[in-house]
Amino acid sequence: MIQIGIAGIPQAKKGKGMDAGIRYLAEIKLDAMEVQFVRGIFMDSDATKRASETAKEVSIKLSVHAPYYINLAGNKETIEKSKKFIINSALRAIEMNANIVVFHPGYYSKKEDTFELVKSACEEIKDKIEKKVLLGIETAGRKSQFGTPDEIIKIISEVEGTIPVIDFGHIHARGNGSLKGKNDFEGVLNKFDYDKFHIHFSGVEYEDGNERKHIPVDDEPSFEPLAEALIEGGYDATVICESPLLEEDALKMREVINAKIKG
Ligand SMILES: [Zn+2]
């Protein structure tokens, strides 16, 4: 089954709060929301409890995105702060019954140290949250960031309780436009020995192997070949639309999926 969701509160309900956003997603027949703590962690336990109840009532699946400013391979102080941001995001995810807390692990320090730093931070975080929510480690869109598919595969194979989050916009940017046909998307999916994926998707503007910004879904990369690869591969996937058009693009993605399933 392929579920489609969006990053944060839908455009139609901006300023109306989490519950209105969750209900609206169900009304327009989307399946999921990734709660965005990317610029700060903002929900108290009343809010998380309400979100959890609303999401359950209308069958919207929740996940959480931790702050952008995390770096598990920075200096000591940055690593400590970053761990706290992830733990605080994860605790709210647990209260909301979200299944996964997503984060970008960080930037290369002295390159040979980065993996061990990220790994040991993930181990500590996992112990603090008692494995009640999965740590979703996202593929990164800039050359300075830890997070190629191979690096993510290595982390998830060594740290229990972590899963990959595949951001196809990031992979496309880092590969300078590498995702074109179905084979390219299959190549990425096949690298991971998984049958269930948490995916981010949006258009991306890039330069010289670096993501510049998210843009509406069109042909950089195109969603159609990914839809084909997911359906033909029989994958279970939750695809979170991170395009600036949010639900507008998510609904187009849903149509593409539906047409291919019927087709
Ligand atoms: Zn993403």
Task: Furnish the topology, listing elements before pairings.
Elements: E1 2-7, H1 18-27, E2 32-36, H2 45-58, E3 61-65, H3 76-95, E4 100-103, E5 106-107, H4 111-128, E6 134-138, E7 145-146, H5 149-158, E8 162-167, H6 168-174, H7 182-191, E9 196-201, E10 203-207, E11 210-215, H8 224-232, E12 236-241, H9 247-262
Helix pairs in contact: 1-2, 3-4, 7-8, 8-9
This protein binds zinc ion.
CATH class category label? Alpha Beta
Bound compounds, each kind once, are:
zinc ion
Task: Tally the helices.
Answer: 9
User: What is the radius of gyration?
Assistant: 17 Å
Number of domains: 1
CATH architecture: Alpha-Beta Barrel
CATH topology: TIM Barrel
Spatial strand sequence of the major β-sheet: 1-2-3-4-6-8-9-12
Largest sheet composition: 8 strands, parallel, barrel
Question: What is the CATH superfamily?
Answer: Divalent-metal-dependent TIM barrel enzymes
Strands, total number:
12
What does this protein structure show overall?
- Strand 2, helix 2 (45-58) and strand 3 (61-65) form a beta-alpha-beta unit.
- The chain contains 9 helices and 12 strands.
- The chain has one domain (2-262): TIM Barrel (Alpha-Beta Barrel).
- The chain has an 8-stranded parallel β-barrel with strand order 1-2-3-4-6-8-9-12, surrounded by 6 helices. Strands 5-7 form a two-stranded antiparallel sheet.
- The chain has helices at 18-27, 45-58, 76-95, 111-128, 149-158, 168-174, 182-191, 224-232, 247-262; strands spanning 2-7, 32-36, 61-65, 100-103, 106-107, 134-138, 145-146, 162-167, 196-201, 203-207, 210-215, 236-241.
- The model has no long low-confidence stretch (mean pLDDT 96).
- The structure holds zinc ion.
- Zinc ion binds at residues 138, 167, 200, 242.
